[in-house]
């Protein structure tokens, strides 16, 4: 029975989708050690930001295929460990954009008009109208750090509020900024000159403590800082100090370096102009339904053997590409598997050459499929599209890609894999014929034309009379049935390659006898 584990609160619509294909267990708030002790039983794990999916948890899994993060940030998942283990990680990149952007705007307005503190005061029976005079957003300078999906929507709403919107994002072009009506600015200037600064970037080693004491000191005395992105981007000690000493005008923070917020946090000791919310950016009914459905559909699809829409750890393999490249991926994987058996020994380099029509396709998926095939004899079902590149890299296999648009020998073009390793250089080329059939069109540069079959035997020999007959009799004596035979040679009576498709695997003692036949120099059984 396929089993899915949910460890954070997920909208019922997502649970209903998963229940169609699996047994769904909900263990909300489970500890890390408990999770590590039960994860071996599950095919899929669905979380929000409350669960830390550590390397230990991932490595304790036995049949886990997918981790679904119902939200954007995957910083609570050890994606590298998941990739190494071949576990797919998916998220919902757009499901909570509006919710997070609206929470940011709400924070800006609440901060500007003292709403939380005025509310508490009024409930205490006070009527402090003078004390809570605020300021307008109209015509104020807003600095948006990170112009992705959320930053962009914040900019759009801020423009509607007639704020002057500035932005910093190293990956956004000036044309795009112009479309968004955002003036690009240097980060330093943005902090120095903005009345409001809002953060909408991921937490990475580069962005950690991006907002530190030096930056806070550079801001205007009445500037306000909003963080609805990720904890750890702001140095919380420094922020508390800056607020306590009125170095800035206020802050509104939704996300923290450690969540739930530690009771010792210096932020809890700040008594002015600070609004804290418990990571509520995505907490709207609409967003929770969006992300739950988005991620549950992807988990369901992957459990049914289909591909995921937004996988975090298989770049370049969207479902559209997977569908349109199906035969090409199958060819690349088959050729990778074939060449690994032809090469034997350690491989140091794989060259992937696309020719003719193949050049039109993205090469990355074909490389991943070739690597999957290449490593699958060694790693069995531990290798998949998720971890193929990483496994190759960790084995010291470098990949070189080349493209050749010249008129191909075969109308549909070809893919050629060449390995360089302990046993020298080997190559296999393949193509896809009009009927969609996969063909191997050369082996070690000898032209052949064979359909890959489950069992094959590839021999190298001197082209001379009698060899084919002797090999045929030897196989017959061992009850190995030959389905087809092809000889590829470059010159008459020179070196040649023989490719046999056989119905049964070759017994080991038969291989030794084959190598005793005069003229045969190598004999490689292949199982595809
Ligand atoms: N508080 C909450 O509940 C929620 C928080 N988030 C968080 O909000 C953040 C933004 O989310 P999205 O807009 O959906 O992501 P996104 O991926 O669409 O945008 C992130 C942007 O940050 C930019 N960026 C990366 N490094 C940068 C740097 N050093 N300086 C400036 N910009 C940089 C990227 O180029 C990108 O444009 C993420 O950290 C996400 O986890 C998202 C949803 C809800
Ligand atoms: O799951 C949540 O509520 C948090 C959402 C979030 O932080 C994200 O999507 O990155």
UniProtKB/TrEMBL annotation:
Any Pfam family matching the protein: 2-Hacid_dh
Top-level taxon of the source organism? Bacteria
| Reactions accelerated catalytically | (R)-2-hydroxyglutarate + NAD(+) = 2-oxoglutarate + NADH + H(+); (2R)-3-phosphoglycerate + NAD(+) = 3-phosphooxypyruvate + NADH + H(+)
Instruction: Report domain ACT positions.
Output: 456-528
Which Enzyme Commission number(s) are listed?
A: 1.1.1.95
User: Top-level EC class, please?
Assistant: oxidoreductase
The UniProt entry, under PROSITE patterns, shows: ACT, D_2_HYDROXYACID_DH_1
Q: Which family does it belong to?
A: Belongs to the D-isomer specific 2-hydroxyacid dehydrogenase family.
The name this protein goes by in its record: D-3-phosphoglycerate dehydrogenase
């Amino acid at each position: 029975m396929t089993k899915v584990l949910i460890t954070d609160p997920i909208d019922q619509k997502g649970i209903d989708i998963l229940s169609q294909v699996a047994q769904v267990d909900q263990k909300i708030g489970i500890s890390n050690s408990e999770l590590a002790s039960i994860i071996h039983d599950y095919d899929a794990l669905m979380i929000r930001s409350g669960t830390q999916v550590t390397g230990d948890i991932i490595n304790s899994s036995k049949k886990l295929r997918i981790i679904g993060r119902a939200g954007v940030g995957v910083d609570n998942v050890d994606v590298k460990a998941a990739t190494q283990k071949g576990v797919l990680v998916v998220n919902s990149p757009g499901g909570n954009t509006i919710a997070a952007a609206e929470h940011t705007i709400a924070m800006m307005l609440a901060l500007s008009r003292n709403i939380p503190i005025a509310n508490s005061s009024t409930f205490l029976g006070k009527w402090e109208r003078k004390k809570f005079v605020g300021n307008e957003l109209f015509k104020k300078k807003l600095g948006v750090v990170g112009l992705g999906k959320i930053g962009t929507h914040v900019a759009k709403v801020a423009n509607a509020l007639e704020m002057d919107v500035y932005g910093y994002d190293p990956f956004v072009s000036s044309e795009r900024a112009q479309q968004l009506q955002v003036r690009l600015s240097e980060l330093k200037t943005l902090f120095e000159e903005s009345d409001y600064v809002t953060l909408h970037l991921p937490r990475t080693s580069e962005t950690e403590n991006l907002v530190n004491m030096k930056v806070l000191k550079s801001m205007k005395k009445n500037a306000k800082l909003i963080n609805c992105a990720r904890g750890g981007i702001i140095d919380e000690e420094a922020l508390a100090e800056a607020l306590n000493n009125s170095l800035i005008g206020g802050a509104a923070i939704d996300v923290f370096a450690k969540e739930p917020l530690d009771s010792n946090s210096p932020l809890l000791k700040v008594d002015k102009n600070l609004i804290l919310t418990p990571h509520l950016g995505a907490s709207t009914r609409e967003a929770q339904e969006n992300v739950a459905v988005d991620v549950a559909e992807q988990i369901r699809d992957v459990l049914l053997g289909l591909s995921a829409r937004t996988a975090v750890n298989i770049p370049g393999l969207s479902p559209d590409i997977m569908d349109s490249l199906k035969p090409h991926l199958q060819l690349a994987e088959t050729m990778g598997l074939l060449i690994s058996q032809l090469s034997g020994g350690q491989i140091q380099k794989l060259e992937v050459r696309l020719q003719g029509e193949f050049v039109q396709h993205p090469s990355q998926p074909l490389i991943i499929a070739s690597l999957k095939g290449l490593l699958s004899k060694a790693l069995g079902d531990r290798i998949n599209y998720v971890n193929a590149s990483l496994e190759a890299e960790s084995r010291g296999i470098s990949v070189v890609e080349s493209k050749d648009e010249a008129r191909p020998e075969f109308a549909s073009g070809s893919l050629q894999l060449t390995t360089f390793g302990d046993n020298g250089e080997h190559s296999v080329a393949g193509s896809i014929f009009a009927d969609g059939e996969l063909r191997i069109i050369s082996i070690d540069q000898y032209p052949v034309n064979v359909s890959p079959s489950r069992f094959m035997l590839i021999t190298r020999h001197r082209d001379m009379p009698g060899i084919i007959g002797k090999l045929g009799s030897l196989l017959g004596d061992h009850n190995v049935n030959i389905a087809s035979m092809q000889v590829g040679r470059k010159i008459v009576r020179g070196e040649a390659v023989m490719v046999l498709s056989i119905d049964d695997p070759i017994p080991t003692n038969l291989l030794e006898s084959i190598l005793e036949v005069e003229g045969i120099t190598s004999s490689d059984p292949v199982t595809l």
